[in-house]
DNA sequence: GGTCTATGTTGACAGACGTCTATGTCTCGG
DNA sequence: CCGAGACATAGACGTCTGTCAACATAGACC
């Protein structure tokens, strides 16, 4: 892996390297129609709404989730390529799990 | 992904979410016998030796690399499960690359 | 228009992180 | 046993990160 790839990959991993954001990705993926609004997601955490909003922004800026406003609600959806990212994370999880 | 898995996976991703550490992993993997000492790795970066040592420590504490002293040198080797981690990273890299 | 509800933004703060210099530790050769 | 080389550790420093309370924005409904 050359320097360029490392510097592209690192910010992506950084965006994923937080338990709240990992669960957000997972919750969105498993939600009905594979999309969810903030009011669906916030109750899953013992965090304030602005904090959840902040994490969603980080995921959005990393290109992992998309936003769409429909009426009062803003729906979050996984970016198409994020599914493959989640697959890779499953492999990681399995690898970690296998050593426990 | 439940809370437990997220909190196990996040620190692992955190350890990987740094361009220097990604390149360290890659350099070790591609080196002769798949192991390398610090004096092999340091010249690849414009960083001080203690800084490289610090990053190796982070990787070691995350369970991604192993250490072995042989004489004056300390050789670093990828932990067996780290190969699968690198595979997953390749998928990530390909996914990111495909969208450019 | 006014008000309510859903969400984003700002500013502040403690703690973590990446980097350096200085110093310590361990090993080998003489 | 002493000096040199390879590496780790400690401490300091600026920056980034996660969190919150307070405020701003934007749509919906009366």
Protein described:
Two copies of one chain form a homodimer. The first copy, chain A, is an alpha+beta fold. Chain A has a single domain, classed as Arc Repressor Mutant, subunit A, CATH 1.10.10.10. Chain A has five helices and three strands. Chains A and B meet through helix 1, helix 2 and helix 5 of A and helix 1, helix 2 and helix 5 of B. The structure holds a DNA duplex (30 and 30 nucleotides).
CATH class of chain A: Mainly Alpha
> Helicity range of the residues of chain A?
55-70%
Which structural class should the secondary elements of chain A be placed in? alpha+beta
Q: How many discrete domains of chain A?
A: 1
Oligomer: homodimer
Summarize the structure.
Chain A is an alpha+beta fold. Chain A has 5 helices and 3 strands; from the N terminus they run H-H-E-H-H-E-E-H.
Key words describing this protein structure:
homodimer, 100 residues, alpha+beta, Arc Repressor Mutant, subunit A, 3-stranded antiparallel sheet
Q: Topology of this structure?
A:
The structure is a homodimer.
Chain A lengths: L2 H14 L2 H12 L4 E3 H4 L7 H13 L3 E6 L2 E6 L1 H19 L2
Antiparallel strand pairs in A: 1-3, 2-3
Helix pairs in contact in A: 2-4
Chain A binds a DNA duplex (30 and 30 nucleotides) through helix 4.
